[in-house]
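Our platform keeps sequence and structure together, in a single record for each protein. This encoding replaces a full spatial description with a residue-level series of whole-number codes. We quote a single record here, exactly as it is kept in our systems:
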Amino acid sequence: MAAGVGLYFWGWRRMRRRWAILNMPTSRARSVAMGQAELIGKARGLGTPLTSPVRQLVCVWYHVRVTRETGSGKNRHTETVFTQKVGVPFELEDSTGRILVDPEGAEVTGDETCNLTVSGWGLMTQDVRLFGARAGVLGLSGCTIREWAVLADSDVYVLGEVGKTRDEAAGRLKKVTAVLQGWLKSPERKTAIDADHDGVIDQAEWAAARSEAQVEVLREETATPAGPAIVVRKPRTGYFIIATGGEKAALKAQGYPAVFVAAGILLVGLGVWLLRGAGSVSAAIYGGAGALAVAGGWGIVRHFRG
């Protein structure tokens, strides 16, 4: 029953995301209204965009994770050896113009650019070998390296909140990105960012560098007020979704939540059937399961109608 309830609510949350994607009309960059909006276009980097750490691809967001299997039998489990997720502001360009996107706090689905299980030094490509040396994963038999990225100039789907910000604030995102990229090009500054000197800039070190870059940019800015600009960002309430490809790709990333909702209802029903001889407790469970079934049925109907 506990598993059924968990599956039900997990599927329900995913289903609500699907509804948000399906029911939101696509806006244009030039005429987009304030508030929740959906945009589709090309991801354009600001200045010098990021480079993915494994495949060395130009991108605006990447996520790399290295895992390995440990133990055996019932004690076998997956251990995360290394993980890193980095994104920088970029511009979404469609046929009408461009709009700034700040990916911080977004649920991002990128293209899988690497999925490799390390089985020997000679079998690895040069880029994977270099990444392994920097991340310290060489010699760990059975390690799996996976990388996802939102590549520069690729098709991208964005669902988020469009709001006005001052020109200086929008320009600040570009300036901070430019400062960080300049630091990464400098061997001395890059070494300073890598506080533990392990050859890899982890999330904490990147966050500290970004904060330092923001302080540096703020010191250089003048106090002259600026006019309004537009930015897509994480809403206070609602969803912030970024996915490579169009609306179909964003929907595919949500999986098939109706299946999990239905499975949750079936598991709860099974639990009720097993406890059917528990008297008043059983009656309470039947009532709860009935309410869950009604809500789940309504959710499934809404899902397929959407």
User: Anything to note?
Assistant: The chain is about 40% helix and 30% strand.
